[in-house]
Design brief:
Layout: H1 8-34, H2 39-44, H3 56-96, H4 102-112, H5 121-130, H6 138-161, H7 165-173, H8 178-189, H9 191-207, H10 210-215, H11 223-234, E1 236-237, E2 240-241, H12 243-273
Antiparallel strand pairs: 1-2
Helix pairs in contact: 1-12, 3-6, 3-9, 3-11, 3-12, 4-6, 6-9, 9-12, 11-12
């Protein structure tokens, strides 16, 4: 079967998409190439491939961020997991259970999406500092879980409402309670949406800098906070900034998200394209 030749419009469109793809990948290339350069090589040329590789940059970077990387994994996974669990329970109740005030409660949750994050920053900081928490991790996990509820509930509410009612009614006639419906039917059928919501929430939580820099102590600091400190002095050798080690720390800090996304990419794309996620 002969291939159809592309029209002029399709060629232009593909060329534009190719340029945009290359532009989006340029920061990755820049970080990878310069992470293997010495300070002198970095100063000579920012874009060429290094003639001599300097993997010791990754050793220095790992020493700086291994602790914060562990903290970020704990904070991010705990926050996203708790966000999805609580949001699924709330969305199930709002979507599939009739109770007085349901519409009002859903409207109030939806209104929270309209409140900018920076408006709540100072009250949130004062509130966290006034609490006696058993772990410094909770100082960032609790507000992160609360901040993620409106978006997650809204998306899961739409997904749960779209489920076939006949199937749910048949399960109820067979004696299934709400917990059995949620565990055996609703959550399994919504798995791509749950993965999509998790990844959409995971990225900003992993990259969050402002609130963690205010409430976390030195031992519990996360990767973004550590990278700023590394950039401000930790990556310097003598009087010369070691940008190679700094770029290596950027690469190492991005690896967990890249690996996770590669494993969950199919479910993420399926969830986004199914219409349940409009972010």
């Amino acid at each position: 079967m002969s291939r159809r030749s592309l029209t002029a419009g399709e060629l232009v469109r593909n060329a534009i998409l190719l340029v945009l793809a290359l532009l989006s990948l340029f920061p990755v290339y820049f970080s990878l190439v310069n992470s293997l350069k010495s300070p002198v090589q970095y100063a000579e040329n920012l874009l060429n491939l290094p003639a001599t590789l300097h993997p010791e940059n990754y050793v220095l970077a790992w020493e700086q961020i291994k602790g914060p990387l562990f903290n970020s994994v704990i904070v991010t996974l705990s926050s996203v997991l708790a966000t999805v669990i609580f949001a699924a329970l709330s969305a199930y109740a709002l979507a599939l259970i009739d109770f007085p005030g349901r519409r009002l409660l859903f409207g109030l949750i939806f209104a929270l999406l309209l409140v900018p994050d920076f408006l709540t920053l100072i009250p949130l900081y004062v509130q966290i500092k006034s609490l006696t928490l058993p772990s410094n991790y909770l100082a960032i996990i609790l507000p992160t879980v609360a901040a993620g509820q409106p978006f997650a509930i809204l998306v899961l509410y739409a997904a749960f409402r779209a489920m076939p009612r006949d199937m749910l009614e048949a399960a109820r006639l067979d004696g299934a309670g709400h917990w059995a419906l949620l565990r055996s039917i609703v959550l399994p059928l919504s798995l791509p949406i749950l993965v999509s919501v998790s990844i959409i929430r995971l990225v900003p939580v992993w990259n969050d800098f402002l609130l963690p820099s205010l409430v976390l102590d030195e031992v519990h600091r996360t990767v973004p906070v550590a990278l700023v400190g590394f950039q401000g002095g930790g990556a310097a050798t003598g009087s010369t900034p070691n940008y190679g080690a700094l770029m290596a720390s950027y690469v190492l800090s991005a690896l967990p998200l890249v690996v996770l996304f590669l494993f969950l990419m199919r479910s993420y794309v399926q969830g986004v394209t199914s219409g349940g996620v409009k972010a």
